[in-house]
Q: What sequence folds into this?
């Protein structure tokens, strides 16, 4: 083979280590060090004044009985389910629509990307104003179409779905993009032969588009799940976890523990548990994705 | 010929049905498209509308849809009430510096990972993407306090590397993977050193990838809220933090708030519209590889 002939010009792997080394050093300082240090702090009784003693797994044990933490886990799951399913369904529909050829398609795609790229805090604050029960535009629109007004983020029952609405608005374009990438890779022949056989457009979608796009929908699902699980930028600016603790997800709970109450030791324990949850979640999703790809 | 001509002149019932179905399909398609786009456009429209109205028109019921007395006062007030110019500069410096450092470190790293055929770094980048940003903040907060770097732009630039560096490596892995090794081998035969091959052959070829990585890294750093909200002081706030903390929502100064929100996000929206193609490439490359 040609490789043999030019072997004297081949470069050992070690040489390329020099290309990686600076980034590796930076990565250890800014990413690996925090992980290890967090693990260390989570075993300490650590508050605003600093460490005041080794407590072993005490911080973890306390978490297991901390109702506020456990509720935040349930809330996070609720929020995650809503903000994975809705963007996936809407994003797939959007991808199918935007895959079709039509005039100004490029412009329409561009506009559809904007929610995802716009600064999340800015968008969150605009939604906060739209949610206002008295002066907000959303209740006005509901009234115009004959629906009852909602308290949106101002009531414990509706706050999570209302926040999920913001996140769905923002991240549907992301799932759309990934599924659109999948649709672009589907060949046209199955459609042609199915059309000749008299299939209607729903059948085309159900039996050709959907199965062939499924691997991409699953990728979108994995990434969306991870992002939804750690959402912060939409929740905190709008509600800061309120009303009461009704929208306190793990991330918001963690933020308040660490930087409002300066319970740094127990907050670090939350980080470790949270991180473990995300790893497990990612692993399960990857496993499901592989299984669905084989079948 | 004659048959075809008569078919055109006198369409059968079946042909009419097909054409009718097609029309309904097209109308349905545009209706669905409109339904999908309406919420996207409405939120941005409402943002602009709030920013252009005095608060008498903002805090009222029923809401005023088309500003009756459009004004730029809100924008002027945002800059008068708080050092928004400084915050804009902060945001720009942090995003530009962290993007530049991410490229300098990340592009060669991705090249080395591909050439050395290492597996672990790619997995590591994936894990870094999954990690919640908050989990870095506690150690940094303690560390920066120890180093007396809290409330400095340097601290923000360093932390924003967590956004830019994994992103850059991830995107560049895809681009370097697509390069043909024959070209590089030819350069080696011609007497280039390993560094020269990278510098003179591979790097120019991967330039589209670098552009993509730079754009996305800049935008995500610009948009970041969580690092600066904890680590920035009054003087070193970036725009997202400034919007959140300077203008309090309770006062119902909605015009100011919307104007500030618009100032933060308009640069990003413009970039998105103008370099849409690169953004799509970057996001799908980063995602689909996962």
A:
């Amino acid at each position: 083979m040609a490789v043999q002939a030019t072997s004297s010009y081949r470069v050992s792997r070690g040489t390329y280590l020099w290309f990686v080394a600076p980034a590796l050093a930076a990565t250890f300082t800014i990413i690996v060090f925090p992980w290890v240090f967090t693990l260390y702090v989570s075993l300490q009784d650590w508050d605003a004044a600093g460490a005041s003693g080794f407590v072993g797994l005490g911080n973890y044990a306390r978490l297991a009985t901390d109702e506020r933490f456990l509720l935040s886990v349930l809330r996070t799951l609720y929020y995650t389910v809503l903000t994975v399913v809705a963007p996936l369904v809407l994003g797939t529909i959007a991808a199918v629509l935007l895959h079709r050829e039509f005039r100004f398609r490029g412009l329409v795609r561009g506009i559809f990307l904007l929610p995802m790229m716009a600064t999340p805090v800015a968008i969150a604050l605009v939604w906060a104003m739209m949610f206002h029960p008295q002066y907000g535009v959303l209740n006005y629109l509901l009234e115009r179409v004959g629906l009852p007004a909602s308290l949106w983020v101002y009531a414990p029952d509706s706050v999570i779905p209302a926040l999920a609405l913001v996140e769905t608005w923002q991240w549907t374009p992301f799932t759309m993009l990934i599924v659109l990438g999948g649709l672009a890779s589907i060949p046209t022949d199955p459609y042609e032969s199915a059309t000749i056989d008299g299939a209607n457009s729903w059948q085309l979608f159900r039996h050709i588009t959907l199965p062939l796009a499924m691997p991409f929908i699953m990728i979108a699902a994995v990434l969306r799940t991870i992002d939804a699980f750690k959402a912060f930028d939409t929740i905190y600016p709008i509600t800061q976890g309120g009303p009461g603790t009704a929208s306190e997800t793990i991330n918001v709970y963690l933020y308040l523990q660490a930087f409002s109450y300066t319970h740094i030791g127990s907050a670090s324990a939350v980080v470790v548990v949270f991180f473990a949850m995300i790893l497990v979640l990612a692993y399960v999703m990857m496993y499901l994705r592989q299984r669905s790809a084989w079948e | 010929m004659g048959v075809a001509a008569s078919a055109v002149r006198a369409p059968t019932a079946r042909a009419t049905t097909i054409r009718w179905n097609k029309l309904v399909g097209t109308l349905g398609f545009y209706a669905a498209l409109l339904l999908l786009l309406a919420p996207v456009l409405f939120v941005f429209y409402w943002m602009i509308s709030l920013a252009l109205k005095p608060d008498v028109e903002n805090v009222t019921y029923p809401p005023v849809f088309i500003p009756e007395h459009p004004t730029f006062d809100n924008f002027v007030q945002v800059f008068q009430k708080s050092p928004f110019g400084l915050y804009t500069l902060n945001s720009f410096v942090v995003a530009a510096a962290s993007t530049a450092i991410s490229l300098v470190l990340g592009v060669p790293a991705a090249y080395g990972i591909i050439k050395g055929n290492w597996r672990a770094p790619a997995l590591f980048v994936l894990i870094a993407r999954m990690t919640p940003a908050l989990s870095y903040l506690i150690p940094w907060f303690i560390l920066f306090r120890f180093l007396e770097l809290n409330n400095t732009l340097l601290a923000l630039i360093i932390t924003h590397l967590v956004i830019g560096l994994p992103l850059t490596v991830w995107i560049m892995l895809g681009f370097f993977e697509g390069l043909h090794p024959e070209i590089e081998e030819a350069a080696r035969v011609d007497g280039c050193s390993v560094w020269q091959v990278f510098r003179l052959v591979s790097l120019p070829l991967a330039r589209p990838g670098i552009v993509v990585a730079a754009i996305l890294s800049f935008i995500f750093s610009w948009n970041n809220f969580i690092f600066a909200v904890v680590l920035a002081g009054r003087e070193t706030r970036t725009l997202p933090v400034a919007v959140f903390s300077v203008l309090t929502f309770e006062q119902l100064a909605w015009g100011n708030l919307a104007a500030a929100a618009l100032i933060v996000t308009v640069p990003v929206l413009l970039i998105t519209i103008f370099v849409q193609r690169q953004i799509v490439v970057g996001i799908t490359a980063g995602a689909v590889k996962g």
Summary: DSSP finds 13 helices and two strands in chain A. Residues 1-7 of chain A have pLDDT under 50 and may be disordered.
